[in-house]
Structures are given as structure tokens and as C-alpha cells.
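Practice problem. Given the sequence and the SMILES for flavin mononucleotide, write out the predicted structure.
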Amino acid sequence: MPTKQAGLTKKTVVSAADPVLATSVGAVAFTNPILTASGTYGSGKEYTDFVDLADLGGVVTKSVTLNPIRGNPPPRVVETPSGMLNAIGLQNEGVHVFLNELLPPLKKQARKVVVNVAGKSKEDYLEVTSILDKSGVDALELNISCPNVKEGGIAFGVCAQTAAGLVSEIRKRTTLPLWVKLSPNVTDIVSIAKAVQDAGADALVVSNTYLGMAIDIEKKKPILANITGGLSGPAIHPLALRMVWQVAKNVSCPVVAVGGVKSVREVIAFLLAGASAVEVGTMNFVDPSICGRLPLELADWCRSHETTVKKLIGALEA
Ligand SMILES: Cc1cc2nc3c(=O)[nH]c(=O)nc-3n(C[C@H](O)[C@H](O)[C@H](O)COP(=O)(O)O)c2cc1C
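Answer key:
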């Protein structure tokens, strides 16, 4: 029998749509704050043996570009202590295959679909945005922070003026909620966050991977064919947490956190630091069921602490 406790109904069985989990990122309402991180979940179908996609707050897709991209030559991933380096290089089938083949089944299964958009040039970003504008997706996430491509990607995300210029042009092409995924490979992420917000971003995603490298000491050669790659996984969580906190207290738009989530504890830490939703990436490769479990564990934690996700957001006492 449910019992009443401090205004919350205490239940023994929690669900991924438990009201304590409700959150929103600007105008987009989510049943729970657990989203997938771009590039670690394909377009969802790879995980349906492990997770009911409807149990997630939403799915953020792999970066979609105008034309298909084969990505970088292998080796493209290396395991590191508590993390991994990747230099995939935005491999994807292009926006038209995405729209015709990948998006329809995803829209049927996921509660919310956020499409991550990348480009080699400003024109690429603008065209992909225009094409997706009427696709019925819930939001766009602009990847201006990919560290693994020669043109585009991070080149747009490391200078406040360039980032703001791109975002203001894209803003004119779509009425969809526009999230901008920032690069952590900068001296002052707050100045870029503010510039991008002022240029029309509806939310900031903090953040992409941290530039790193690995060396095969016997061969005296880099392990990644691309030489450098982006570091992700539990190793980066403290760095991401610091940036989420810094950004959230300096902007007025919502922040979506990403970096190193491996359990419900990092999700709660991100919420306390000011995030309205949390993306989970590398740990999907270790435990493909994690995104289905986290909402349940978070609901359980909220109920046992007599709180809600909305109350946790930005509740850090510092
Ligand atoms: C293999 C791999 C591929 C990725 N591809 C993309 C991508 O296409 N677009 C993007 O914005 N981020 C991409 N990312 C970055 C993730 O979305 C996320 O920002 C990063 O991995 C940090 O989160 P995590 O520590 O939970 O993995 C990729 C990460 C990995 C590990």
C-alpha cells in the first residue's frame, strides 16, 4: 500500500515515469532526466535488447551531417584508466538516410528524440538544420565541439565569437529548441557559454570529450591513427562536474550535463550542480542496460530522500 510522506507518495515499486523524476529543458518536458550521449547509442536500435527506449527521458542521436562520412581510419578507440579515447571522426550515413531510415523507428520507440547536428562548414550546419526543422524531432543538439575532425567540429566551439556567429545563423533556420554542445578544451568555458546563449541557444550541453592521446611505448607510435582523440568515461566526471557548475551559475538557460556518469551518484551530483538533464555515454559500452536502470535508481533515491529531480536541480550549497 502506498504511504504518504512529507507530501510525496512513498511507493515500494518505482517506474521510469515516476512523477518525482519529471524535468524539463526549456520548453521540452521529460519524464525523467536520463538521456543518451551522442555517438554512444547509435540511433537507439542497437540497445533495444537491453533497454526499453521508452524508459529513458530521451535519446540523443549520433552526430548527423549533410553528407555521409566514413570517419577516421582505425585504430579509433583505446581503453584508458577509467575511460576511453575515441577518434571516430563523425562517421554517419548523412541526413537523408537518417531521416528516411533511422529516425522513423526511433520516433516510435523513444519518448523524446534530440538530433545531434555536426558539419564541416557553416553551410553544412545550416542545411542540415533546415532539413531537420520540420522532421518532428524534439530538439537539435549542435555539436560544435568534436575534437576528432580536421574541418568544422571543435573549430566552431573554441572561440566565443565564432561559436556565437554560427549559433545565431542556425537560430534563424529553425524554430526547434536549440541545444549547443560545448567543448571543454578551452580556457574559459563560461565566456563561450554566455556568448552562445546570447546568440539564441535554448540550452547548453556541457560537454564533449577532452582532447588526449595514447602512445604504444614499444613501437614508439601513437595508438590512434588520428594521433589524438577525445577522452570520456568515469575519468572525466570531476572535470565535467566543475564545468557544469561553473556554466550553470553563470547562464540563465538550462544546462544538460554529460561526462563520466557510471551510477546514479554522478547523476545526482550533476543535478545538484545545476543540470536539468543528464546524458550517459561511455558506460553504455560497459553496461548496455545502464540507461534503463538509472531512472529507477534515481526514483528510488528521490523517494528515500523525500525529494524530486526538480528540487535537486541547482540545490548545491556552496
Ligand atoms: C565512441 C564515442 C563517439 C562519440 N561521438 C560523438 C558524436 O558523434 N557527437 C557528439 O556530439 N559527441 C560524441 N561523443 C561524445 C559523447 O556524446 C559525450 O559527450 C562524451 O563521451 C562524455 O560522456 P561520457 O563520459 O558519459 O562518455 C562520442 C563519445 C564516444 C565515446
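Check your answer against the key. The first strand starts at residue 3 and ends at 5.
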